[in-house]
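This entry is passed on directly below:
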Amino acid sequence: MAEKGILYMIPCPISDSTEVYDVVPEANRRVIDALDYFIVENVRSARRFLSKAHIARKIDELEFVELNEHTTAGAAVEAMIKPLLAGRSAGVISEAGVPGVADPGALVVEACHRKGIRVVPLVGPSSILLAMMASGLNGQSFAFNGYLPVKPPERAKALKALERRAHQERQSQIFIEAPYRNVKLMEQMLQVCATETRLTVACDITSPEELIVTRSVGQWRQVGVPEIAKRPTIFIIG
């Protein structure tokens, strides 16, 4: 029986304006250069990343299969890991940052664990952790909550629940929004959250336009919502 391949979790830059090896260790390139099979969230962005990473192989010689938000666990994922069962290694690439975290790549990782395939995470930028690092909020206990409800009444209820948890458990609450809804989300936070609640806004992380600021809700009300429209942003309540 052939020895099983390895699934490598390959981080890529968060910002398009960032050079690959400014945020990703050069050592990752040795791993990437050895691979010819990639499971990716988006083929176009993965090809662009690998090209910017100056990998040894020609991009057209590589095999790509997409694993995105429309992929469900089952036959499609099982087919993705068949080459690994036969001894071929693969790399998982997200559209931005680290795969498997707030990313559909977790599906193929779960399948690999069931089949006894080794999973190796490589070092690279995570917007969630970078925002937490720079927030000054409690880094001993925190939770990532993904997206909040879109409709204002449900979103207000979710915000109040996260705020209660932040105060009662001293657990930092991290969440995100589609960039074009950032302003409406923050405006609602300033309406419904308590004056003393602390709020971190971390925008365009690792890019030259990076903005990471922590203020109380009361202070944010005084200075107003920053320019975060259509910019990838992490919010943290503490």
About this structure: The two ends are 52 Å apart (CA to CA). The chain has a mean pLDDT of 95.
